[in-house]
Specification:
CATH topology of the largest domain: Molybdenum Cofactor Biosythetic Enzyme, Chain A
Oligomer: single chain
Structural class: alpha+beta
Strand content: 25-35%
Order of helices and strands: EEEEHEEHEEEEHEEEEHEEHEHEHEEEHH
Distance between the termini: 49 Å
Radius of gyration: 27 Å
CATH architecture of the largest domain: 3-Layer(aba) Sandwich
Number of domains: 3
CATH superfamily of the largest domain: MoaB/Mog-like domain
Strand order of the largest sheet: 17-16-18-21-20-19
């Protein structure tokens, strides 16, 4: 690729190297635009005699073609690709989704190629129409060999980003307290509903219970019969671990305890288990305030019916200091 200044009448089919503005600051032609016959006439009408242009050489791929090729391979799910000026492709969620990102693959692509990718955070919630990633190329052209290497990596290792749709989630809620479940409901209900509304959902099934093993077990069994997307337990007490009342009730149901303790503050006393693939989340103290906590980090993937692992909880430590 070689940039040069040419007479306007010689510029057709070449790539504009800088944005051209009309007097007053209105954009006439954008950098990276391939000059057409109509563009030549427009430039001549505006009194321009010369322009700074370049053209592709053998073994080079235009920036727009390069970012589109990467965009098509790097993402899956509820995603729409839109080309933007300046060698950019933007990705947008087409419906409410949880964004899942392969961080290691993203780093590899960003370190080793002539394209770079900025994405939304892993486990982030995106509303329909929200931008979730941008791909930007080296200006004007990318070496075909480099682009082919990137595409080969993406084909082999899978997409970097998935917009996993959140469709018709049902949230079951259990309020528990040592003396009265209704007491916990009075404390937490407004906060819980605000938190769910931020994610475009609401409470589907609700129970209250005293914090006693058999009562909690009975309530969880009843909620599981409704086959909810996720069960949240809002307790007024902080557990000592899976050995406390909530944990013992989950184990009595033969739930799999995926993780206790999260490297997140607020929310370090998270207890996450699964019963027949239904996640059960106990997060004491996290329903007292609308401020971000561990529940906000893990609810989007759970609502998208993604099974969050103990390893993924452990990885939340980077950025886990929320306040």
């Amino acid at each position: 690729m070689r940039a040069q200044t040419v007479e306007v009448h010689q510029a057709m089919g070449r790539i504009l190297c800088c944005t051209i503005f009309k007097p007053g600051g209105r954009k006439l032609l954008a950098k990276g635009h391939v000059i057409s016959e109509d563009d030549v006439r427009l430039l001549q009408t505006e009194g321009m005699r010369q322009v700074w242009v370049t053209e592709l050489e053998d073994g080079e791929i235009g920036e727009d073609e390069a970012v589109l090729a990467v965009a098509r391979e790097m993402a899956c799910g509820s995603v729409e690709i839109r080309l933007a000026a300046g060698g950019r492709a933007n990705l947008f969620a087409t419906e409410d989704s949880c964004i899942l990102v392969d961080d290691e693959l993203l780093k590899q692509i960003n370190c080793a190629s002539s394209v770079v990718i900025a994405s939304a955070a892993n486990f982030g919630f995106a509303r329909a129409g929200q931008r979730i990633a941008t791909i930007k190329s080296y200006p004007f052209a990318v070496a075909q060999s480099q682009l082919e290497a990137v595409i080969s990596i993406l084909k082999e290792r899978g997409p970097i980003l998935q917009a996993r749709p959140i469709r018709n989630p049902s949230v079951a809620l259990l309020y528990s307290d040592a003396s009265s479940g209704d007491r916990a409901r009075d404390f937490f209900d407004s906060i819980v509903r605000q938190r769910l509304e931020r994610l475009g959902t609401s409470v589907h099934t609700l129970l209250t219970s005293i914090e006693e093993e058999s009562s909690i077990t009975h309530s969880l069994l009843h909620l599981l019969k409704a086959r909810p997307t996720v069960i949240l337990i809002a307790s007024t007490t902080a557990p000592a671990g899976p050995e406390d009342v909530i944990g013992r009730a989950m184990l009595k149901l033969e739930s799999h305890i995926e993780r206790f303790l999260a490297p997140v503050e607020p929310g370090s006393l998270l207890l996450l288990g699964y019963k027949d693939n239904v996640p059960i989340v106990s997060a004491p103290g996290c329903f007292r305030s609308v401020k971000p906590n561990v529940v906000d980090l893990i609810l989007p993937p759970l609502l998208a019916r993604y099974r969050v692992s103990g390893w993924e909880i452990a990885c939340l430590g980077h950025g886990g200091l929320l306040s």
